[in-house]
Structure prediction request, 212 residues.
Amino acid sequence: SSSSSSSSSSSSSGGGEIVLQENEMGFCSVDGSVDNNNSGFTGTGFANTDNDFYKGIDWSVVVQESGNYDVQWRFANGSSDNRRANVIVNGALQADVDFDDTISWSGWEISDPITVFLTAGYNEIRAEALTNGGLPNIDSMSLFGSGASPGNAMVAAHRQAAQALQAALALQAAPVLQAAPVLQAAQALQAAPVLQAAQALQAALALQAAQV
Ligand code: GCU
Ligand code: CA
Ligand code: CA
Prediction:
């Protein structure tokens, strides 16, 4: 039941659309990989989450004015299930979206628009799987409204690294076993393109050594 409609009755005034592609400005991360093995995508490929609950993709956008903005995704779903997802904005659940099957993994459709409230400045938008199939393959995300631009993924990476570091520091008085998940999180952040990840890892390692 997908449509290509882009009507935006509740969106902020004015036209304009920004299209966020994998590995470009505004694309932060995918719990999975960026692939190109199913044809019909735009850009250089599509984001393919691992197939499980809560796997997701993060984007960031900057808007000049607080208000409602419509969002749509171009996606392919060759499974026979609706891989519906939650839409989480700045850490808070705001909407959910259907990603019904598109017959094949090379059959791409545009999701029905959902509306999110964005605050003036930097915002993070996450689509997170509500089924054990993960998300469908996502070709791009479009945001409608005037005064919107793609965010800088480094900001999201810095924020996540800072949170990991804070968690490590908070564990200073805790037993060593509790440090293990923090260490894992810090190690996972090594792949992020950000110096702070290395600092978080160093802090976690130093913490572990101190507690052994
Ligand atoms: C297939 C397809 C992948 C897709 C996966 C899935 O393997 O090639 O691109 O992500 O199915 O079920 O999610
Ligand atoms: Ca997948
Ligand atoms: Ca793409």
